[in-house]
Design a protein that fits this description.
This protein has 3 helices and 7 strands. With 128 residues, it is α+β, with helices and mostly antiparallel strands. A 5-stranded antiparallel β-sheet has the order 2-5-1-6-7, covered by helices on one side. It has a two-stranded antiparallel sheet with strand order 3-4. Helix 2 runs antiparallel to helix 3. The chain starts with a strand and ends with a helix. Keywords: Membrane, Transmembrane, Transmembrane helix.
Length: 128
């Protein structure tokens, strides 16, 4: 099972606001069939009383991340960016990192097509 790490960023949010936006995007992404969404654990400093903490602004997506699933996730993320101007979303899958910002829809789709092509190539290799 592969993992896709999604990180939200903005210029104006407090930690609480970013956490609220992350939770809202996570709810939307949970509607995508075949995707499990979780908040990855953040590193806890030595001496801290709590044993774990959620990373603010991050979501870990797991499941069958096929090209179709990634396309559905991409639609949710692009809609998020349209609603929340001035923010960005970074996708990290393995060594590949892609940051989507408020660029035009055409630019975002070109970047996402690249990610989908890589996903198709990985699936073809795994099936062979």
């Amino acid at each position: 099972m592969s993992e896709l790490l999604v990180t939200l960023a903005g210029t104006r949010e407090t930690g609480a606001e970013l956490d609220r936006l992350t939770t809202a995007l996570g709810r939307e992404l949970r509607a995508v069939p075949g995707v499990t969404v979780a908040r990855p654990a953040a590193a806890v400093p030595d001496g801290a009383k709590s044993g774990s903490a959620a990373a603010i602004g991050q979501l870990a997506l797991t499941g069958l991340l096929s090209a179709g699933t990634i396309a559905a996730v991409a639609q949710v993320v692009v809609a998020y960016l349209k609603r929340h101007e001035g923010r960005s979303v970074t996708w990290q899958r393995g060594d590949r990192t892609i940051t989507l910002t408020g660029h035009s829809t055409e630019e975002q789709l070109a970047v996402l097509r690249s990610l989908l092509a890589e996903t198709d190539d990985e699936q073809s290799s795994a099936d062979a």
